[in-house]
Amino acid sequence: MSSMNKSKVLQALGKRWEVETRWRSMLTMSQKSRKGIEGLGAGYLSRLVESRQKTVDNLERLVALTVESVRRAGGQVYVAETAEDARSYIAELAKRRGVGYVIKSKSMTTEEIELNSLLLSQGIEVVETDLGERLVQLAGQRPSHIIAPAVHLSREEIARLVKEKRGATVPPRPEAITRFFRTDLWTSFQQAEMGITGANLVVAETGHVVLVTNEGNGRLVTTMPRILVSVAGVEKIVESWEEAFNVLRVLPVAAVGRDATSYITVIGPGSMSRHASVPEYHLVLLNNGRLAASRDPWLREALRCIRCAACLDVCPTFRILGGHVFGEIYTGPMGVPWTAITEGVEEASKIAKYCVSCSLCHHACPAEIDIPMAISWVKHASGGGTMRERMLTMYELYARLGAHLPGLFNWLQGSRFSRRVFENLLGIDRHRLMHRFRGGSLYKVLGEEYQRKRSADIVYFPDTYAAYIDWSIGLLTVRVLEALGYSVAVPKTHGSGMPSIQYGFLTKAKKIAAANVERLKDLIKDGVKVVCTEPTAAYCLREAYPKILGTPASQKVAESTHELTSLLAGEAQIQPIKQNQSSQAKVLYHHPCHARLISPQRPSEKLLERIGLSAVYIDYGCCGIAGTWGMRKGAEGFLISAEIGRRVAELILETGCKEIATESSVCAQQLRQFTGLKVRHTIRYIAESLGVQEQPPRLLNF
Amino acid sequence: MREETTGNNPTPLARRFLAKCKENGFQVAYTPSYNDLLSVLSEWSTGWGVGKIVLGGVSAGLAERLRGALSVQSPCEVLGEADLEKLGDLRAGSLGVFRARAGVAETGGLVIIDDWKANLASLIPEYSVGLLKESEVLPDYWELSSLIRKSRPAGLAIISGPSSTSDIELTHVVGVHGPVACGCVVAGFELDE
After folding, report:
1. ipTM of the prediction
2. Taking CB atoms and an 8 Å limit, are A268 and B148 in contact across chains?
3. Which of A109, A261, A654, B136 is the most exposed place for a label (fewest CB within 10 A)?
4. Is the predicted pLDDT of residue A694 greater than 80, yes or no?
């Protein structure tokens, strides 16, 4: 398993304009996408997941149906087993027809099969006609984003490129540059003998290919030349037009928050062309690992991808590093399973390192693909993480030692010398603010009685922070639940094991998950709930464990698990804090990444409002720490984490809030470090409203 | 489900369709009569500074009337096979008027079905206007699915706004390869004479 490419990361971080532009652009796009998806209605999304899964489950049958439909309509179909087969078929066809000039519309699949280089080697001129694709083609680069291929290029760079490659002087204005290419590419449209498109969808019942575009180049590519070739991965097939239109309804919303793109073009044999109908039509259906992936339990979900790029836009590391670092042909989070499908896990592992397992991509994905778990599997299948990453999975041991020797550990964490040693030995960046240890564990503070309880209304799963680093959150949680009339059991459990999942040590993660499920399963009879104060713990119990273990017990634990605040949201006893109490103020609520999957409706924010606080929420995404990842030395974590942290802090400080409420201990670490504000766990506000005293009263970390 | 024409005012479905088209960047109009259609086309082409008009996929009767009336303002021709070598002449300062066969209210799109002339008139010129009958407005894609299954077209295009890009610094720019501006007219009268 390779580690992050530090020089590539440092090079990317050095491009200040690019980092800033990408972060702001992706932030805006993800906010638009989220808003659009929320307004779309669940029917479209559930139908999308259903129909995409139907494709995955019936791939071979749908390929056969498509072949039959296209042939019946008078077109030619070639089912290519490999990338080599596909590109050779097209190159041979071009040769046989004497084609010297080809125009292309945007297509990831033709990037996958590396078509251009083969055509060029045969002396065929190939011109990309999507503006962004044309720009990266002229720059000799590859796209850095699926739907915004040239987002990394500034207007000045583009104007220089036009001068250098096309010999024209254009002012560095998007309008002027666009105008230039309107004229420049028109010549190509007129000259071309063959048009090559990708496909957003292939409709099996009629054999049509559907293209979703905005610029109009897709329409011109399918209108002007005499030979038309579409290249589609077999997973793009849907059986019926109803399924196709359901995808078409969701795709632009998930991509850019719009109900429709400018153009949907439906092509096939005999479709509309300047020659009245396309004289010669070929559809190349590409397997290249897809059929095998449809039978792979870890990769098959990725075949549901509709290429909306919502996962790229929310990804914290993609926002900073972009697709030239986090990606090969396929970029960003979805790029990892897709590289595994098309090129194998070894290749995929090279980019898997840039995933921090925040799970925002899973939350943003309209096809509900569990991308982070697929990436964890890629890391695992390629041999797991590095030695340092293995050491980070031992964080619980570190926390237990800290609980025993708080004075020593707090001193070590505060000493410049020992931080340098930590940095060199463990790879923990010396600039990272660390949590202080309170001393002792929650289990000791509560006493044996809570561990031994066999019957209770609620089983509390404290995870490592509340168990060993600062037990005050755990104690307060138990007291609040008891004040609300619940009986609580706190069995001694392991931490959730998230670092093992994050770094791809799935064998170790499986052991931890099995031990925790074993400990919890007998306690959750008759509707007993498992409650977590750490969102990552709830995420592991609810989402990750059933996938890692696949047992009925893990499923039962998953179904019983709740985040604390979603449970408390239903409690009528929680009332406004009395006027004379301290926290009558505007509080920023930070929604941790893992909480978004478990409690997407932000129950904490509603609770804060209910107790009389003015809760402010900004959808900036991940704060950039992602557990132990953001603690890692320099380019392996902290430098990227700090880039995100500073930007998030800027947005938070603009609100004028003086305090932050959240549930994640690591988010608290990041937010304290970069905003300088006081961060408190939401349970502290709830406790205050109920008159439950904090014991001890001193706020240690959050 | 298609709604019937109601006379001088558009049906609620047609209103919803036009509102959505407007949101997508179309100029929109409802024209209860031929004269209204003529004045809308005349006003828009003047506003855009159009020097030439081409008609694509419009019925012979309507084409004849529009040609006669619009030629007073700008040269107006019916797109034919003879023009195919001169498509480049339409790239600047011209308007393509085309006949759409359906409209989708939910997403605001004009649908061209198996009509290469309408396809070219909607794509090549600098400006374009799509015409459809009020009864051709469909509520959503589901209705269009049925239409496709029934008519089994070879090709289809759904146009939901001007050609646009955000490829340079995510700045929105219109008129990349297709029209810079476009319009949509829903006719409350029989278009295909």
Report:
1. 0.95
2. no
3. A654
4. no
